[in-house]
Amino acid sequence: MPRTVRDVVFVDGVRTPFGKAGPKGIYHETRADDLVVKAIRELLRRNPDLDPARVDEVAIAATTQIGDQGLTLGRTAGILAGLPTSVPGFSIDRMCAGAMTAVTSVAGGVAFGAYDIALAGGVEHMGRHPMGEGVDPNPRFVSDKLVDESALFMGMTAENLHDRFPGISKQRADEYAVRSQEKAAKAYADGKIQADLVPVSVRRTNAEAGETGWGLATVDEPMRPGTTLESLANLKTPFRPHGRVTAGNAAGLNDGATASLIAAEDVARELGLPVKMRLVSYAFAGVEPEVMGIGPVPATEKALAKAGLSIDDIGLFEINEAFAVQVLAMLDHFGIPENDPRVNQYGGAIAFGHPLASSGVRLMTQLARQFEEQPHVRYGLTSMCVGFGMGGTVIWENPHFNGGDDK
Ligand SMILES: CC(C)(COP(=O)(O)OP(=O)(O)OC[C@H]1O[C@@H](n2cnc3c(N)ncnc32)[C@H](O)[C@@H]1OP(=O)(O)O)[C@@H](O)C(=O)NCCC(=O)NCCS
C-alpha cells in the first residue's frame, strides 16, 4: 500500500493558569486530572467546528503517573472531558518534555496516516506529587559510576552547568531572570497571555479559617513582577553552599495543565480549523545526566540538520527556562545575545512557572501567538531540557509567513 507523509499542524493550544505547589497554592484542593480535563474542554469549546468524535487519539503526559495522575491519563481525561467513549487515549512520560513528546508522538501518527486529529498535552501537580515521589533509582547508577549522584537532582545539575561554563556567572543568571519577569509582566499587560488561558474554579482553604469558599484562577500565580537584581542578590542557594542557583533564577515548583490539537493540514483546512503552526522537524538528544541543562543544544542541532536549516533561519525562540543557566548555555553555544528580542518574547518559566510535563505545550501556544503577530518570521523553535540528561527541540513554520515583506 503506497503511503504519503502528510503535513502536520498545530491547530490550537490552551492551558490553565499555573499555580504555586503546596498548601498555599491556588490548586492545593484541585485534582491534577481535573486540571487537564479543564484544558481539554476549553480546547473543544473554542473549536466548535471540530466534532469530538473526529479526535483519533488523546496523549497526555505526566511525570509522576500515580494517584490522580495515574490510570492512563489520556484515556481517563478524555472520558472525563466528555469525549465519546470511542476516542482512545494513553499517557506519556519524558519528564519535563512530556507534553512536547505527546505532541511529537501524535504528530508522527498524523504524518503516517494513523490519525487525522489528535489531542496532546500534559499536567503536573507538583504539590500533590513532589518531584521524585515514589521513585526507586537503580543503585547501579551510582555504584557503577554510570552517573554522578547529582544527576538525580535537577538543581544540582544546574550548579554543575555553572561549573562547566564559568562564563555564566550568578550575575548573568540573575539578570536573565529579571528580564524574564519583566517580559512576562509586559506580556500580561499587553494581553498576550490571557487569550490562551482557561480560568479554573478553585476551592479556597486557609489554615486558620478552614474552607473560605470558591475562587477563580485567572492568572499565573508564580509571577513576581517588580523583581530586581538587588532582590535576587542574596537569595539562598539551596542546591549548593555558596552556589549560584536560587529560587529567583530557577523555575519553581508548580501545578498546571496544557492541551493542544494536532492535525493533518488537509483535514484541518477541510474542517475549517485554525492552522497556527506547521511542523517542520523535531529531535530529542541525550547528554551527560549531570549537566542535563545542555540537552537543548544537541537536540536543536539535530532538529536543524533534519530540517536543512541553520540557527540563523530561526526568527523566534521559545526556550523553557527550567534554570537561567541552562538557557544561557544554549544561547552562548549558538552565539545568540542573551537579550536577543527573538528569544522568549513573553518571558518564560522563571516567571510563569514550570509544571514539568505540561510545559512543552505552553511554549508552543506562545510561539503560535507570536507567529500570528509577526508574519515576517518564517521559522520558530520550541526547546527544552529534560531530566536525566536530555533535550528536545521542535521546529515550526509560520503559516502566516508573508515572505518577510514587512520586516
Ligand atoms: C529553587 C527552589 C528549591 C526554591 O523553592 P522554595 O524555597 O520553596 O521557593 P520560594 O518560592 O519559597 O522562594 C524562596 C525564597 O526566595 C524568594 N524569592 C523567590 N523568587 C524571588 C524573586 N523573583 N524575587 C525576590 N525574592 C524571590 C522567596 O520570597 C522566598 O523568600 P523567603 O525564604 O524569605 O520566604 C524550587 O523552586 C526548585 O526546586 N526549583 C527547581 C524546580 C526544578 O528542578 N524543576 C525541574 C527542572 S528540570
From TrEMBL:
Record GO biological process: fatty acid beta-oxidation; phenylacetate catabolic process
Residues in Thiolase C-terminal domain copies: 275-397
Cited Pfam families: Thiolase_C, Thiolase_N
InterPro entries listed in its UniProt record: Thiolase (IPR002155), Thiolase-like (IPR016039), Thiolase-like_sf_Thiolase (IPR050215), Thiolase_C (IPR020617), Thiolase_CS (IPR020613), Thiolase_N (IPR020616)
Keywords: Acyltransferase, Transferase
Assigned GO CC terms: cytoplasm
Domain Thiolase N-terminal: 8-266
Domain of life: Bacteria
Presence of keyword Iron: no
Transmembrane listed as a keyword: no
Any one GO molecular function term: acetyl-CoA C-acyltransferase activity
Catalytic site: 96 (acyl-thioester intermediate), 354 (proton acceptor), 385 (proton acceptor)
Stored PANTHER family: 3-KETOACYL-COA THIOLASE, PEROXISOMAL (PTHR43853), 3-OXOADIPYL-COA_3-OXO-5,6-DEHYDROSUBERYL-COA THIOLASE (PTHR43853:SF2)
Family: Belongs to the thiolase-like superfamily. Thiolase family.
Protein name: Acetyl-CoA acetyltransferase
Source lineage: Bacteria, Bacillati, Actinomycetota, Actinomycetes, Kitasatosporales
